[in-house]
Specification:
By secondary structure, the chain is an alpha/beta fold. Helices cover 42% and strands 14% of the residues. The strands form three sheets. Strands 2-9-8-7-6-3-4-5 form an eight-stranded mixed β-sheet, with helices on both faces. Strands 10-11-14-13 form a four-stranded antiparallel β-sheet. β10 and β11 form a beta hairpin. α6 packs parallel to α7 and α6 crosses α11.
Length: 412
């Protein structure tokens, strides 16, 4: 007789669910599939040789530091470099305000553990990053969506939602946001909107979790000042990462926040993994110190801009005109909205997979329904040729849905 595992699992595990995106990876890893699904950096853009040389030097010359356990808070030198970088970007930040973590996703998990009670509402953007909502839900919290436009979350909708929750005896205390080139929509919250949301946070005594993995990858214009740099009340918790601007494999990110919160996060991390990878930290430190990461980020910006432009140009050419999509100014994602007479996007995905093309349907990005006519397309991983080929295949599929019109018939 086998073990009935459900009887052994802790009660809180009922809140843990799998990621919609991860569920598609087995399909999209097939070599014949052109995938616009994963929000991963481009494999061809990893600076493998430079990293190999730096790692070899670290192991040979600094093995006592790079191969040994490190402090829970992280490398002092790396935190000092990050503090300097954030200060240059307008955010007053000291070493004691920083903690190294295993990518920003670990930070979201720690913050969920520290800040979220069971059945407690947490304000999120609508649509929102799946990983952020998963961290909230895994500790019993309830993600409560705030509608967005092309400038970010709508302040009036946020106020209405807060008042509604207060009237139900469920006052929220946290707002989670990806303000720069948001996952999944690619939207950037305007400076005006950030200032309005900070006022709302102050009035209703909310904390803001600012998740910024994509901010350095700006293809046009300028990124507005961070919530963290605009904050005067210590109510913003900032998450940064080396995953998109260097390599995700080292799993190095950071939290910047008040010293009181950093101290609590440190206690939680001690129970999770004691410390982040010292070798990864030493690598990030060496490459940051030599301005290598800044130069590499500028190179990535040019390469990803070319991919974004290729996807937009292909959509302009091959998609029916009643399909809507934005042109993000940075990051990895384009948000696509289908007409009401189309099948739901999860059905469209199945049809696309039959033709060996993948994207992510929109429903998983919404906290309480929605997204049935939307999808996230990522241009970061596929090649330029794959982008053009995959979008053309989808265009043919969408024109078939429109009534069998061929691309030639509409002048493409």
């Amino acid at each position: 007789m086998g073990i009935e595992w459900n009887s052994f699992f802790a009660e809180r595990t009922k809140y843990i669910t799998g990621s919609q995106i991860r569920q598609f990876f087995a399909l999209t890893e097939r070599p014949e599939v052109i995938s616009f699904a994963g929000g991963f950096p481009g494999n061809d853009f990893f600076p493998s040789e430079d990293i190999a040389q730096t790692l070899a030097q670290l192991v040979r010359e600094e093995s006592q530091q790079s191969l040994q356990y490190g402090p829970t808070e992280g490398s002092y030198e790396l935190r000092k470099l990050i503090a300097k970088k954030m200060t240059l970007e307008g955010a007053s930040c000291e070493v004691d305000n920083l903690m190294i973590i295993d990518g920003s996703q670990q930070g979201l998990d720690f913050l969920g553990r520290i800040l979220v009670n069971e059945e407690e509402p947490v304000l999120v953007e609508e649509p929102a990053y799946i990983g952020g909502m998963s961290a909230i839900k895994s500790y019993g919290g309830a993600a409560c969506g705030i509608e967005m436009d092309n400038e970010g979350p709508l302040p009036e909708k946020m106020i209405t939602r807060i008042k509604q929750l207060i009237s139900e005896g469920k006052k929220p205390k946290v707002f989670y946001t990806v303000p720069n080139f948001q996952n999944p929509t690619g939207t950037t919250t305007s400076l005006k909107r950030r200032l309005e949301i900070l006022k709302i946070a102050s009035h209703y005594n909310l904390l803001i979790i600012e998740d910024n993995p994509y901010g350095p990858l700006c293809y046009e214009g300028e990124v507005p000042p961070s919530y963290f740099s605009l904050d005067t009340e210590d109510r913003v918790i900032y998450l940064g990462s080396f995953s998109k601007i260097l390599i995700p494999g080292i799993r190095i990110g950071w939290i910047a926040a008040s010293k009181e919160l950093i101290e609590k996060v440190s206690m939680v991390k001690q129970t999770a993994d004691l410390c982040s990878s010292t070798l990864g930290q030493q690598l990030a430190c060496c490459l940051s110190r030599d301005s290598y990461i800044d130069m590499h980020t500028r190179k990535l910006t040019e390469l990803y801009r070319e991919k974004r432009d290729a996807m937009i140009k292909s959509m302009d050419r091959y998609f029916p005109p009643n399909i809507e999509y934005n042109k993000p100014k940075g990051g990895f994602f384009i948000w696509v909205t289908f007409p009401d007479h189309y099948p739901d996007s999860n059905k469209l995905l199945q049809l696309a997979l039959d033709k060996n093309v993948a994207f992510v349907h929109g429903e998983g990005f919404f906290s309480n329904g929605g997204g049935k006519k939307s999808a996230r397309f990522s241009f970061s991983q596929p090649s330029l040729e794959e982008i053009k080929k995959g979008i053309k295949i989808l265009g043919e599929l969408f024109y078939d849905i429109e009534g069998g019109s061929s691309l030639q018939a509409v002048g493409h």
